[in-house]
Write a structure and sequence with these properties.
- The protein is of the alpha+beta class and about 170 residues long.
- The chain has a domain of about 110 residues: Gcn5-related N-acetyltransferase (GNAT) (Aminopeptidase).
- Helices cover about 30% and strands about 30% of the residues.
- The protein contains 5 helices and 10 strands.
- The longest helix has 15 residues.
- About 5% of the residues have low confidence.
- Bound molecules: coenzyme A.
- Coenzyme A (COA) binds next to helix 1, strand 5, helix 4, strand 6 and helix 5.
Length: about 170
């Protein structure tokens, strides 16, 4: 497994990872109507690719196959963290989060923040994040429980971000 920056042609592969991760890994934590709302939230493949390109996205590859991705902004906000179901519990999510941490530190961020799914919460907790608040955002008319989480970097308490369909 290796990490590399997002490339122009990674749109379809990252969208496939997102959809498979939601439909298979996250489906044990959410009801079918919630999974349909979440997985179906992305209808515009070109818009998806534009957002991944513009959001400092890092992908994980096994061979030449994209198996996961994340992102981080200059405030330390992690919007996306998704790993293909065929490759979970292999440390890929952890490697991506470690990339996000070192990248955010390099950009001068004082904390990492995210909106974590029920499925991802244990992974973020394993990386030092704590829950700030439980949330019920509405996606395509359906409420989906997630958790605002943060992990200080260097002792500060500032930072914020906006969410798409990730966490
Ligand atoms: C959440 C997700 C990205 C984790 O990726 P991953 O590559 O499997 O994570 P890792 O293998 O690095 O796991 C790191 C640690 O997190 C914890 N962890 C991971 N999955 C867990 C689970 N299902 N239950 C409890 N703890 C878990 C463990 O401590 C694990 O370490 P271990 O395997 O040595 O015990 C992946 O499961 C996924 O894409 N899920 C569905 C989509 C989703 O909810 N994405 C996040 C949106 S906010």
């Amino acid at each position: 497994m290796r990490l590399r920056p997002y490339r122009e042609d990674d749109g379809p592969a990252t969208l496939e990872v997102f959809r498979r991760a939601v439909r298979e890994a996250a489906s044990r934590d959410y009801a079918p109507d919630q999974i349909d709302a979440w997985a179906g939230a992305v209808t515009d493949a070109a818009g998806w690719a534009d957002r991944r390109r513009s959001r400092r996205t890092q992908v994980a590859e096994v061979g030449d196959r994209v198996v996961g991705f994340t992102d981080v902004d200059a405030d330390g906000y992690v919007d996306m963290l998704f790993v293909h179901p065929d490759h979970v519990r292999q440390g890929i999510g952890s490697a991506l989060l470690e990339w996000a941490r070192t990248t955010a530190e390099g950009l001068g961020a004082h904390e990492l923040t995210t909106n974590a799914s029920l499925t991802a919460r244990p992974v973020f907790e394993a990386h030092g994040f704590t829950v700030v608040a439980e949330q019920r955002p509405v996606v395509r008319g359906t409420a989906l429980t997630n958790f605002r989480m943060r992990r200080p970097l260097g002792g500060s308490t500032s930072g914020a971000g906006t969410s798409e369909a990730g966490g």
